[in-house]
Amino acid sequence: MATRLNAVPRRRWGRSELLIPVIPFGTQGFGNLFGPVAEDEARQLVSRAIELGVNHFDCARCYGDSLRKLGPALHGVDRSRVIVSGRVCLHGDRGDALHPDRPRHPDGWFPDASADGVERDVVEQLEFLNIDYFDALLLHDPPDMDRCLRRGGALDGALRLKARGLVRNVGFGMRPHDFHRQAIETGDVDVLLCFNDYNLLRQSAAEGVLPYAAARDVGVLNGFSIARGILTGVDVDLAAARGHWRNTEDLPRARAMRQWCVERGVNMLAVALQFCLREQRIHGNPLGSQNVAELEANVAAVTDPLPERIFAEFVQARL
């Protein structure tokens, strides 16, 4: 019998007007990057996620072989029941499962970051997934912005796709805050994804990205809200190894936070996620579940509110 859980809260994703779950489903979780997940397991995950209202699937070529699993998992699902955001991976290490033998571009860009290249990439992904459009397209991890924003660059390609109806909203997914601000200033960006800059460990996006996005009503996804597992309450060192967490300076603080939660009998996953939910300028926190148990734990963590005193005490602890 399936676990009975409360409905996942939803938020308006900025000017896209999409109502997304506060914990979109990051398909990286079943891309074999953190352990093997079979195609039938991925299909069960997608089905259960839709049942729970986690019906926003965020996908990318660089997420291992996840595209090969997402397409069949969505087969037969009413397209109007799901939100699918895709990426054009502009970095040189995307590990493209659709073309594993394709060489990297010599200057680190892959593909060429041109408007034509972006259009070709997206058309191929849509055909592979057997869907007619992406609800949103994120230009992912560009090495620099000038090449993306100039005439005939990647953003032009995304806007062409939007005009063709193959993409309904456009944006960027990246780390540098100045890149986000440049993108927002174009006035053409509907949504964005930031990484590892708003969680229990750091909140620099609160100054560097969120005010600028809110001023233009740009929708925000917040990557790494649980820092690839080290903020979930499991053993921090095991989580760091499994999640390939390379910021070793984060581990002592994560251990201290885990111990604080253990001593008080508090669910650290709930603390980590509900901390992010308290920031209303963030609309979704994508999470990559490897199995149904992880998915249901994530849902429970955002649907069972913690007492306000927990957050007050956590702040006072200065961890």
Can you walk me through this structure?
- The chain has a seven-stranded parallel sheet.
- The chain is globular and about 55 Å long.
- Strand 4, helix 2 (66-74) and strand 5 form a beta-alpha-beta unit.
- The longest helix is centred in the middle third of the chain and has 15 residues, at 115-129.
- It has helices at residues 39-52, 66-74, 115-129, 146-149, 154-164, 177-185, 205-208, 210-215, 236-242, 251-264, 268-277, 292-303, 308-317; strands at 10-12, 19-21, 25-26, 56-58, 83-89, 136-140, 170-173, 191-195, 219-223.
- The chain has 13 helices and nine strands.
- The chain has a single domain, classed as TIM Barrel.
- With 319 residues, the chain is an alpha/beta fold.
- Helices cover 39% and strands 12% of the residues.
- It starts with 9 loop residues before the first strand and ends with a helix.
Percent of sequence in beta strands: 5-15%
**With helices defined by DSSP (H or I, 4 residues minimum), what is the helix count?**
13
**Uncertain segments:** none
**Which descriptor suits the 3D outline?**
globular
Order of strands across the widest beta sheet?
3-4-5-6-7-8-9
Largest sheet: 7 strands, parallel
Which range best describes the helical content: under 10%, 10-25%, 25-40%, 40-55%, 55-70% or over 70%? 25-40%
Average of per-residue pLDDT values:
92
Q: Name the CATH architecture.
A: Alpha-Beta Barrel
Order of helices and strands: EEEHEHEHEHHEHEHHEHHHHH
Instruction: Domain count, please report it.
Output: 1
Which fold does the CATH topology refer to?
Answer: TIM Barrel
Radius of gyration: 19 Å
CATH superfamily: NADP-dependent oxidoreductase domain
What is the β-strand count?
Answer: 9
N-to-C terminal Cα separation, in Å?
39 Å
The structure class reads alpha/beta
CATH classification, class level = Alpha Beta
